Every structure is written in structure tokens, then in C-alpha cells.
Amino acid sequence: MFDKILIANRGEIALRIHRACREMGIKTVAVHSTADHDAMHVRLADESVCIGPPPARDSYLNKAAIIAAATITNADAIHPGYGFLSENADFAQMVEEHGICFIGPTAEHIRMMGDKITAKHAAHEAGLPCVPGSDGAVETEAQAQELAHSMGYPVLIKATAGGGGKGMKHAHTPDQLIDAFRTARSEAKAAFGNSEVYMEKYLLAPRHIEIQILADNHGAVVHLGERDCSLQRRHQKVLEEAPSPALNADARERIGRVACAAIRKLGYRNAGTLEFLYENGEFYFIEMNTRLQVEHPVTEAICGIDIVREQIRIAAGAPLGYEQSDVRFSGHAIECRINAEDPQTFAPSPGRIGGFHTPGGLGVRVDSGLYSGYQVPPHYDSMIAKLIVHGGSRNECLMRLRRALGEFVIEGVKTTIPLHNWLVNEADFINGDYDIHWLQKMVDRSAG
Q1: 381: which DSSP letter?
Q2: 252 in the same domain as 319
Q3: Is 227 labeled as catalytic in the residue annotation?
Q4: Which of 70, 350, 357, 448 is the most buried (most CB within 10 A)?
């Protein structure tokens, strides 16, 4: 097992990794920008190293500075968390080349799944069902028109190096296609330095279902069930739950079995998430996240497995030590992402935290690096906390979630807690009757 792990991240996920390490008897190294010198994970870590000024490109995305910090502190391994360099194949390769263990999959698998076209090809070869679409990049407007005609409208245009909804546009008619194609390419170039796009059939009312997997270096693969991440605004997840209210036992067993078979065929290792759209009883692969997910706590809540701990064990060469039949699921869990944003305009709201009180009680978990007096910086993602609630049933979970949201106090900045308070009282959500477009439509209707 490792003696010391450098955490190449910030905020709640850095603190989450620190806690797992501490429980395993592993020392931690926190890296931080000058804006994060007083962050909670920095205060709690055994050692800390400043790696640059506030802009992420000069600190949390500075590969050389992070590897140098690991070297001078004699860290055995680096955990990248999520975001930043977590899915950067070059970084993973550099870490390994410096004799440090990268806690995650191989650079080869990160590279394979980081490009949406190669990921789709790999998924198809591994036996995963895919959304109908182009075989590769769509280079010209004429090509886009021909493909859209053959597939039928509506269609979705997506950046090959994309993520987070950037470089993603849909067209419902031929008149909309050219503008959508040009805009997607322009956004892709600005966001990722790569204007390449591809096309898929646009499903009208799908659910976003993802399967959490763990795979060790000895051929063992298990899945930890599914998460429903359909509540999204501008392709950004807002709330996640497990299990999905949209799946029955047969669909759940089928997609779990297919996901594990694909992971075995790919020879993948460590934690990963296969993401699907689900409509009319059919699953369609859309992408794989080769890292820890923001929403991993809802899976931990229903299966009792510490995913970060398992990541560390697998990276150290340990076998999983259990089979699929050993994984048991219990109850229902929901996670609310709490952002420092205006709940109506969604404009970022950085600032100093005043009063701060987290909810508690049976089945309530809060992952956050906040404390009273902490200055939320304007330089990074606006998510400042995650509220995770577990109950014996979905109804019990909802009742507990309403109570927990009512207890949550964050003063000094605007937050999206009011949005979640509204959401958990909406009839469609209570009934589990929603798809990936539902929340955006509701928000647009409210704004109008």
C-alpha cells in the first residue's frame, strides 16, 4: 500500500480523497493555488505545496508543477479527483514515467475514451449499443446535411473532444442545421482547441443512465448499479439519484451485465462510468468517464462500498476481493449539487461565507470544503457542496431530503438551495416522471 498520496485537485473532492487516505493510514499532500491557501483540504493535509497563481492553467492544470510537488514530497501516487487533469492522458503518462503511480486507468484508456469518436468505435467493438450517428468526424456542411437527411431529424452535433455541453447543438429542421453545425464547431474550437464535431440522432425524451464499474488488475470486474442523472440544465447535472426510478429489474440486470462484459473486453482497470441514454426500453452508449464521478456518493450510499478507497487499493495492485454476487443494494439515495450561483439567473456568486450550518441525522451526508469565514474564489467551478441523502425507499429519501434542505444554511453567497427546494416538491420529480430535457424546459418556462 502507498505511504503518501498527492491530491491533484481542490475543494470538496480533495477533502473527500484526503478522508479516504486518512482512514487507510496514508499520508496526504495537498497542492493549491495562492487563492486556495486557506482551503480546508490544505489545512488538514499532512503537507501542502503551492503550485501557482489562481488561474487553473497556472496551477491545477500545471502538469510540471504537480509532478515536481510529488517528487519533492516523496509521494508514491497521485490521485487526480475529477475535472482538471483527471482525464488528461498525457498527464497520466508523465506521472507513470516519473515513477509515481497514477490512481486511475491507463493513459491508453484515457486517450481512447477522451475522444468521442474513438470511444464510440471502442464501445461498439466491445458490444455496447450506441446512438445511431456518423462513423467519424463530420467535416463539411454538405456532409452534415446528407447525414441528417439519412438519419432523420432531429440531430445532435457534438464536439469530438467535448464535455459539459460545450460544442453541443441540436437541429430539428434542415433550416436549423447549418447554423447549429457552425456554432458547434466554433464553440468546440474555443473550448477545446479542436473544432472537430460528429453527429448523432437526437433522442426526444431519453433518461441519462450511467453504470459505475470497478475493475482490478487481475481480471475482476463488478458494477455498482446505475445512477439516474437526467436532471440537467444546459447539459450540466443538477441532481442525481440511485437507483433510477425509470428502470425495472430486467433492464437493470441487462445493462449491468453488458457494461461489465465491455469493460472486460477493453481490459480497463480502476473506477469508471459508462454513460447511456435510455429511451423506450433501449440503452444507447454516449461516453465513458475514466475517473471518479461527482455523483459517486449516491452509489456508495446504496451499496456501502467506498469507491475512492477501492480506487486506491486497485492502483496499489490489490484484488477487488469480491464478485458481483457479493454486491448488495439497499434503499435509495439522492445527491443535490449546491452551487454558489444565483438560483434564478445562475450567475456565479463568489464571496465570503458567513453563517454556515450543515444538516445532519440518519442518512444525511454533506461533502463540502466550506467553513464560516472561507472566501469562495471566483476562479473555479461554482459547486461548493453536495448534499447526499439515503433512505429505505425513494419516498423516505425524498422526505429526508426536504428536511435536510430546510436545515442547510450557507450565508454570504447566493446558492442553488432554493432551486433544489422547488425541485423536490415538483409533481413530475416526485413521480419520477422526467427526462434529460425536463428541467431545462421548466427553467426556461419560469424565466419566460
Answers
A1: -
A2: yes
A3: no
A4: 70
